[in-house]
Design goal:
Number of helices: 6
Radius of gyration: 15 Å
Distance between the termini: 24 Å
CATH class: Mainly Alpha
Helix content: 55-70%
Structural class: alpha+beta
Strand order of the largest sheet: 1-3-2
Number of strands: 3
CATH superfamily: Winged helix-like DNA-binding domain superfamily/Winged helix DNA-binding domain
Strand content: 5-15%
């Protein structure tokens, strides 16, 4: 991940609704959620939710899959891994063992 891509991801997550959407999709796991269900859960109007989902998708943090007439959204864990890797690229001044506790805490047990 390059700096511009990381900045786009941070910008996408810097808005409260988009951060809530991303966290909700992470929690939903591999089943993801339909767009309407996301909006209902967060009490956000459809057109506003559509714009927020678009920003997150463009930043590489979520992905969409059409299912019939609806669209299901998923957290893009590869995108998040890329962002975390970017942040930790030069971790601990060449002493990766110092980062190990953080990496273990971030590791998904699913």
């Amino acid at each position: 991940m390059d700096t511009n891509h990381a900045l786009a991801a941070f910008a996408a997550l810097s808005q409260p609704t988009r951060l809530d959407v991303f966290r909700l999709l992470v929690k939903a796991g591999p089943e993801g959620m339909a767009a309407g269900d996301i909006g209902a859960r967060l009490d956000v109007r459809q057109n506003t939710m559509s714009a927020n989902l678009s920003v997150l998708a463009q930043a590489g943090l979520i992905r969409a899959q059409r299912q019939g007439r609806s669209i299901r959204y998923f957290a893009d864990m590869e995108g998040m891994r890329g962002l975390l890797a970017f942040l930790m690229e030069d971790c601990c001044g060449g002493r990766p063992e110092l980062c190990q506790p953080l990496l273990e805490e971030l590791a998904c047990g699913c």
